[in-house]
Amino acid sequence: MRRSRLVAVLAAGGLAVAGCSAPGPAEVTFYGDGHTVNVGPIGNCDVKTGICAANPGAAGTLKLRPGKPVQISVPKEVAEGPWKVTVQFVNGKGQPQPLKEDIITSGDRYAYTAMPPTKDDQIVVVEIAQATVISRTGDPNDAEPITSALWSLQVQPA
Prior knowledge:
The chain is mainly beta. Helix content is 14%, strand content 45%. It has 2 helices and 11 strands; from the N terminus they run αββββββαβββββ. It is elongated, with a radius of gyration of 21 Å.
């Protein structure tokens, strides 16, 4: 009887462990005008398997006044590789302005501040793209970056 209890306890423990899953995709934190939002990727791909997942509902929203910056904090798995920040603005009249893009390749930068060009400009979208460098032939001379994950913040004027 003692042995059957031990087997039952081990079996229950095995089911509990089997029910656990790997941690989800990394989150990026956006902060602006006194508000913070953590955002999961709207899309991510496993470059080893080629399997991609889309989650457009993961896009974050943040209320922000014109002229206010958005501070971005990325996790280690993003900071250690190349990543890109894309910021879309509108001017005081609501007219779209040229996109601002910065590529971060230092391998140790965890933060970025997106600053509107003028006090009247409004940030409307901030996107973070994680890049993975691959070579189809194995030759580093033909390696190219591909986007392996994308996070999006939609800004609502406050």
